[in-house]
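Propose amino acids for all 565 sites.
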């Protein structure tokens, strides 16, 4: 059964419930009864546990058919029951209203819950039944509504959206600052500074409560605030604002006064904790026209927080690795400087999505002798910190080899050998291009990478140039070849990673050929070209994108300098 139907959780939720509650397994054997059911049936819990419904209440065994029907189709049922139990009663016949709900695990029925009330005082009992049934429904649906992604802020928003308005009029989730990224300024002594991850109010309250801290902002909590006390005690804190008086600090008192002005009356703050680590708090607030939080509400809020904290912990750990990889890649993938005043360079790197770990896309530009320059575009297999680290190793090895003034295919061969010997277990594709600004030619070699694109000055379209493709680097197979492609002054060389063109369900050759539609007016800016490319092809990308455009500036004919020059 789901975790919240274990004995301790069930007892916390229903031991104090005035409605009689029982949990039965798939064979209709009792696994839990609360004190109210013991009184109703006139038998202690030990006389229920392990026995079937019909064994405990022979006179009411006809209800077993309704219970089995709920197990079979999963549809809740309400029944009016007439009869007698083992409890002494003045009336010859007693009447109850029972509601049966199936309990599911992994999409299959694993048991059911019965909620029973005597209907002597029909109005009061109906309210108790509805409250108990609402709490069960709330917990049953939490699993499919919270934690649908591995993004922490999304999970926090799902939590606040889930509890408002059915359980609270206002809800906020505040979490500790991330461990990776920009440091957060230190708060005053005794003050707790948390990042507001989500905030939601019911109706007009949604806009009005934004004054207390928009999502993404940092909020300070004084030592006497409910949030600070909750974190210190690691227990739910119920803060009634009816008579908060003047004993509170000015920060807390001002916040309570502002809340009271909006018609809010009471806050319940529960800790978000997973793997013995506090992640933050869930604050639930009710308005003056809503019922006050009771013991059952506290138990339900605690259980919701426990379940949500597990999802938040998964998202936090995922975000932690994502942040490390992103920071590492940003530090390594710096904007390359032009190798020569006559050479223009423009680059872009676009992560696929905030919820996707960055990958190993990389580019580089290295000046060579005799007015030539080497351009590289690569893509390390995989995502995350390991891919980003592998990317840095490939880039360092390439820079080392570039100084030996080898043709592109020889650089790839040497790089392939060095990677294999280094023990690096991440293969990578790579496209190398050596442009000779004096000779008007570009030498290109590919290690499993997509072909380059050339845009000639004033041309109506681009040239997607097929070049010989060898195996990815790191395989040890070698077999690379260099192709010579005309590339005079003004011609743009465009290089990219597969995230730009690869689309699910479409042949990659078809995707690449769309790049033949690229144009750039004579003298147009390379940055404008990259903006055009990302606007047209980057919107539906499912992977990271790296693009690089370069050209030799047009001007008077240039002559290769002689050694004496």
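Proposal:
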């Amino acid at each position: 059964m789901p975790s919240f139907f274990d004995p301790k959780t069930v007892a916390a939720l229903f031991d104090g419930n005035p409605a009689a509650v029982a949990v039965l397994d798939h064979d209709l054997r009792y696994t839990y009864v609360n004190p109210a059911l013991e009184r109703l049936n006139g038998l202690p819990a030990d006389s229920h546990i392990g026995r079937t419904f019909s064994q405990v209440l022979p006179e009411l065994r006809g209800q077993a058919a309704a219970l089995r029907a709920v197990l079979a189709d999963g549809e809740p049922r309400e029944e009016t029951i007439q009869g007698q139990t083992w409890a002494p009663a003045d009336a010859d016949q007693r009447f109850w209203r029972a509601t049966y709900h199936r309990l599911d695990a992994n999409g299959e029925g694993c048991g059911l819950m019965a909620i029973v009330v005597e209907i002597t005082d029909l109005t009061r009992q109906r309210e108790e039944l509805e409250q108990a049934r609402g709490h069960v429904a709330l917990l049953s649906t939490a699993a499919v509504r919270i934690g649908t992604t591995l993004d922490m802020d999304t999970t926090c928003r799902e939590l606040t959206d889930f509890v408002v308005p059915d359980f609270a009029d206002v809800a906020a989730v505040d979490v500790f600052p991330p461990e990776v990224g920009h440091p957060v300024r230190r708060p005053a002594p005794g003050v707790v500074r948390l990042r507001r991850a989500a905030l939601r109010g019911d109706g007009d309250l949604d806009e009005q409560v934004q004054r207390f801290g928009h999502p993404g902002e940092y909020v300070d909590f004084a030592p006497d605030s409910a949030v600070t006390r909750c974190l210190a005690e690691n227990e739910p804190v119920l803060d009634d604002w009816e008579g908060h008086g003047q004993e509170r600090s000015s920060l807390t008192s001002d916040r309570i006064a502002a809340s009271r002005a909006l018609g809010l009356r009471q806050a319940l703050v529960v800790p978000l904790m997973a793997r013995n680590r506090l992640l933050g708090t869930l604050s639930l607030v009710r308005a003056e026209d809503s019922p006050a939080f009771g013991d059952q509400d506290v138990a339900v809020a605690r259980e919701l927080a426990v379940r949500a904290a597990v999802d938040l912990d998964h998202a936090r750990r995922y975000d932690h690795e994502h942040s490390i990889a992103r920071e590492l890649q940003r530090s390594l993938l710096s904007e390359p400087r032009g190798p020569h005043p006559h050479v223009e360079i423009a680059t872009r790197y676009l992560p696929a999505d905030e919820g996707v770990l960055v990958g190993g896309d990389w580019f580089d530009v290295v000046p060579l002798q005799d007015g030539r320059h080497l351009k590289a575009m690569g893509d390390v297999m995989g995502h995350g910190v390991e891919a980003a680290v592998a990317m840095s190793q490939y880039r360092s090895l390439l820079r080392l080899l570039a100084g030996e003034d080898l043709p592109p295919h020889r650089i790839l061969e040497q790089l392939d050998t060095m990677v294999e010997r280094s023990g690096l277990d991440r293969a990578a594709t790579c496209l190398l291009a050596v442009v000779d600004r004096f000779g008007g030619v570009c030498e290109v070699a590919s290690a499993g990478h997509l072909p380059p694109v050339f845009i000639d000055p004033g041309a109506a379209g681009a040239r997607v140039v097929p070049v010989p493709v060898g195996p990815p680097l790191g395989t040890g197979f070698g077999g690379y070849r260099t192709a010579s492609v005309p590339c005079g002054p003004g011609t743009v060389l465009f290089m990219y990673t597969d995230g730009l063109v690869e689309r699910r369900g479409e042949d990659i050759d078809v995707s690449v050929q769309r790049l033949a539609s690229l144009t750039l007016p004579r003298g147009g800016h390379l940055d404008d070209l990259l903006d055009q490319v990302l606007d047209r092809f980057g919107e539906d990308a499912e992977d990271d994108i790296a693009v690089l455009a370069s050209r030799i500036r047009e001007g008077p004919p240039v002559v290769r300098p002689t050694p004496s020059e």
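The mean pLDDT is 83. DSSP finds 14 helices and 22 strands in the chain.
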